[in-house]
Structure formats: C-alpha cells, structure tokens
Design brief:
The protein is α/β, with parallel strands linked by helices and 208 residues long. It has 8 helices and 5 strands; from the N terminus they run E-H-H-E-H-E-H-E-H-E-H-H-H. Strands 3-2-1-4-5 form a 5-stranded parallel beta sheet, with helices on both faces. Helix 5 runs parallel beside helix 8 and helix 6 crosses helix 8.
C-alpha cells in the first residue's frame, strides 16, 4: 500500500502543532510518507524560514527522531486567496500526489470584525475544499471546527452533534458579510453567538 501524502494547514497554531507531531510520531502505524505544511509568507520570510522559526523550534518536537524534518515540506500559501495562494506549478504538483488533507487553519481572535473573521475562517475553508476537489487521489478531507459552533442553549437542553441552525441561508449570509451589508452586533444577537469566531466557524460548517 502506497504511503499517504498529507497536506496540513494551521501547523503554526497550538492544535496544528499537535496534529503534526502525532502524524510524525505515528507515521509508521498511520502509513504517512510525506507531510506538506501550508504556511503563509510575508515579505522576505519564506515558508522554510517560518517552518524553522514557528514550528520546528517548538519544544513539542523535541522527542522526535532527529531526521523528522525530512518528511515535512513547507509550502508557501495565502489560504484566503484564489488557488489558496499556492504557486500554480506547485499547486498542480500537490494535487497530483496529496491523499489526505487536514485543515486546522483558523483565526481564534474572538474580536475580529465580521468581514475579517469570515475571510480567516470561511474563505480559507472553501479554498481548501476547492483544492481537495482537484486531487484525484484524495482519500479524505478533515476540517477542524470548534465545539462552540452551537450557541449555549442556557436551558439544559442537550447539544446534538448536528449543524447548528442559522437564521439565514449560509451562502447568502456569507456573501452579505463579504459585501459589508451585515450589522455585526445585530447578527450576533440574532444568532446567539458570543463572537465572530464561533459564528464564522458555524457558517463554514454549513458551506462545507
């Protein structure tokens, strides 16, 4: 059986680091051959530099074999942009080999303005979905959300494992947010969400 080729986003975050560590530590039992880590670049800071500074230097990777970096390839991206901001030739090469995608990318800033939160948490998820559709060898796409997509019911009711309701069609709501036609305060009150993070993660779940 061929080894898995995993694409991972959000590896600079707490959860993403844990996922990356587990993929490497359990690579034999999971059948992982290669891990492509998508990283946002800025100015002269390359994906390789970000990988070394923001990921590889983390203490959580200290217990791995010294050669663990050999199975990880940093890839420059801008997930909210068309094509996920991946250079076209590189994107084509990735789609030909990737078998599994784990999307951990998100902004956990609770106070981001609604448009910026949607850009970080919805647009990125949709770009990853679009990428996944172009992978002929794809086995699975896992999108990491949050336990808080369902507003607290405050009445003792069970919270079921299902899409949390929205007062409007998710696609129409997302497009209205993009156009700047939404009053953030009113929308949060209407949906019961405490902040733009949980609301935009909820919208992303609906659209995925």
């Amino acid at each position: 059986m061929a080894a898995s080729d995993v694409l991972l986003t959000g590896a600079t975050g707490f959860l993403g680091k844990v996922v990356l560590h587990e993929l490497i530590q359990r690579r034999e039992s999971l059948g992982v051959g290669k891990i492509r880590v998508l990283l946002r670049t800025s100015g002269s800071v390359t994906a390789e530099k970000r990988f070394e500074v923001d990921i590889a230097s983390s203490p959580c990777f200290g217990d791995l074999d010294p050669d663990w970096r050999d199975m990880v390839e940093p890839v420059a991206c801008e997930l909210s942009q068309p094509g996920a901001g991946i250079e076209p030739d590189k994107r084509e090469a990735l789609t030909a080999t990737v078998t599994h995608i784990i999307n951990c990318a998100a902004s956990v800033q609770f106070d981001l303005p609604i448009q910026r939160a949607a850009n970080a948490n919805v647009a990125t998820a949709l770009e990853i979905l679009d990428f996944a559709k172009s992978c002929p060898n794809l086995v699975s796409l896992v999108n990491v959300s949050t336990a808080y997509v369902t507003p607290h019911p405050k009445d003792g009711k069970d919270v079921l494992e299902e899409l949390a309701p929205l007062p409007y069609d998710a696609r129409e709501l997302y497009e209205a947010i993009q156009r700047g036609e939404i009053d953030e305060t009113e929308l949060l009150a209407e949906t019961g969400h405490p902040n733009t993070y949980t609301l935009t993660k909820c919208i992303a779940e609906h659209l995925l």
